[in-house]
Write a structure and sequence with these properties.
four-stranded mixed β-sheet; 10 strands; Immunoglobulin-like; single chain; 1 helix; four-stranded antiparallel β-sheet; about 140 residues; mainly beta
Length: about 140
């Protein structure tokens, strides 16, 4: 390891830790993939949250931001009660998305299906077209 940066050294160390059941042992907190689509009358945020139960997920609007968070504890036990191996794991994910000023957060809707959370936030629609300003 040639780097003197402690963060590079820690990253390299965690990269050498073996995996259990195909999952690395490096942590309980991670980010989640999201897509944000803007339409004329709404914003649709889609977040991948595989393996979480609906009750594990929190969706809220706080200070003009959409906060999506999920947290769970899992345990895996061997069939034999002598516990040759027993694993406990805590996992959490969180994302924060800035919302436009014209979002109607009070009318937001969230649905969770097949590991995918979809949050739909209506936008205030104005019929007012932009107007040209002449330069003098």
């Amino acid at each position: 390891m040639n780097s003197t940066d402690p963060f590079d050294q820690m990253s390299a160390l965690f990269g050498r830790i073996p995996a259990v059941d195909g999952r690395p042992l490096t942590g309980g907190s991670r980010s989640t993939a999201i897509d944000i689509a803007a339409h004329d009358d709404e914003i649709v945020v889609t977040a991948d949250l595989p393996g979480f139960d609906r009750d594990d997920i929190e969706v809220r609007v706080d200070g003009g931001r959409l906060v999506v968070a999920a947290e769970r504890d899992t345990e895996r036990e061997a069939d034999d009660h002598r516990y040759l191996r027993r694993e406990r794991r805590h996992e959490s994910v969180a994302r924060t998305i800035d919302l436009p000023e014209h979002a109607r957060a009070g009318d937001a809707d969230a649905a969770y299906r097949n590991g995918v959370l979809t949050v739909t936030i209506p936008l205030v629609v104005t019929n007012e077209a932009g107007r040209r300003i002449d330069v003098r």
